[in-house]
Design a protein that fits this description.
alpha/beta; seven-stranded mixed β-sheet; 21% strand; disordered C terminus; binds NADP nicotinamide-adenine-dinucleotide phosphate
Length: 348
């Protein structure tokens, strides 16, 4: 299976490591032999239809270089030439791991669209194209008879989407409540446990590397909103996008709010919610010790099913290696679908 990787950052590099480490197991267990035929970062690209050495790409990136400066096949620039790059590499699958830019998702949307129009399958961990254009992208995939997979966008390595989808077989999801953002969870836990103000807890999250220097997507609820939109489209078949989500973040949440919740034996969490009233994100109380009362970077999802009642899934919700594992899972899934159904060629 010939793959082209867009983005060689934390997730992309973990993926290259896993591809090298798991080569034997993937071949023995699934008959899948991924071959890296192209890589691109923000400054250039490196394409070799005969296959690139993952270790060489890793080493080059770890020394701070762009893949565009790699010997023989690297070229700098060309960030507007995605279609030509994919075509000339002979890729059968593209893997999209460029940064999630919810305000300007168009570049990633266009890349996915173009790849699928060329007949490539796509694996995407970038939330922006899906949160803003999921129904259209699913349609493009279906029209071109290719597979679009995105299991790493929600829950990182924890298979939230596949699990939620399975729950709908023979039953119906009435509502969903989920904790999907580690940064806000860290801040809220820290405020409650250490009686710290929002500002102090946020500063600590930045100092420890849990929050980015600009944490607005997390604390203003956009990251949770993007994930709940993907979950709503995937598991509940709702055709919603970010503009339809009512979002309240946790910026400046008063310490008293958390203190009072504790007196009621509750924790405050940033909750993404889907029910008859629509899709929304905001701080809400959950009983101490309940499945949604998770600490730190853990994610938790509770579905209320019509006949089965409440079911919950809890797992780590972030991490480069975990997210790279989700990409491998998607590649195996695509490989199995194509080899069973005869869709696409997916050559080794
Ligand atoms: N990290 C996690 O735990 C996690 C979990 C779930 C989902 N995700 C998602 O996975 C994606 C990658 O995350 P990350 O942590 O790996 O980010 P990252 O470390 O910032 O890496 C992003 C990579 O994308 C490259 N890039 C930027 N613009 C590009 C362009 N126009 N064309 C090609 N490459 C481009 C960057 O190039 P340079 O190397 O030149 O800077 C870099 O290699 C994000 O969308 C993120 O939301 C991450």
């Amino acid at each position: 299976m010939r793959v082209f990787l867009f983005g060689v950052g934390v997730v992309g590099r973990h993926l290259l490591r896993l591809m090298a480490e798991e080569r034997r197991a993937l071949s023995d267990r699934h008959g899948l032999v991924p071959r890296l035929v192209g890589v691109a970062d923000s400054r250039g690209r490196c394409i070799c239809p005969d296959g690139l050495d993952e270790q060489a790409v890793l080493q080059h990136k770890e020394q701070g270089g762009s893949v565009g400066t790699m010997a023989r096949w690297g070229t700098l620039g060309g960030t507007g030439e995605d279609v030509e790059s994919i075509r000339s590499s002979g890729a059968e699958v593209i893997i999209e791991t460029t940064p999630t830019n919810l305000r300007e998702p168009i570049r990633a949307i266009e890349r996915l669209r173009a790849a699928m129009a060329l007949g490539c399958h796509a694996v995407c961990v970038n939330k922006a194209p899906l949160a803003t254009a999921m129904p259209a992208l699913v349609e493009v995939a279906s029209y071109n008879r290719v597979h679009l997979r995105y299991s790493g966008t929600v829950g990182a390595g924890t298979p939230v989407l596949a699990w939620a989808e399975r729950c709908t077989l023979g039953d119906r999801i009435l509502s969903t409540r989920a904790v999907l953002n580690g940064t806000t969870n860290f801040i809220l836990t820290r405020m409650a446990d250490h009686a710290e103000t929002f500002e102090a807890a946020l500063a600590e999250a930045v100092r420890l590397g849990y929050a980015e220097t600009d944490p607005s997507n997390d604390i203003d609820g956009l990251d949770t909103a993007a994930k709940i939109v993907i979950l709503a489209n995937h598991a509940m078949r709702l055709r919603v996008g970010l503009p339809q989500v009512r979002i309240t973040g946790i910026r400046g949440i008063p310490l008293d709010h958390l203190r009072q919740a504790r007196e009621r034996r509750c924790s405050v969490k940033l909750i993404g919610q889907i029910d008859a009233e629509g899709v929304r994100v905001g701080p809400a109380e959950v009983p101490v010790g309940s499945p949604l009362d998770v600490p730190g970077s853990m994610n938790a999802v509770t579905l209320t099913l019509e006949r089965t009642g409440e079911v919950s899934l809890v797992g780590r919700g972030a991490g480069g290696r975990e997210t790279a594992t989700a990409i491998i899972r998607d590649l195996v899934d695509i490989w199995q679908c194509t080899t069973r159904a005869g869709i696409g060629s997916a050559r080794a």
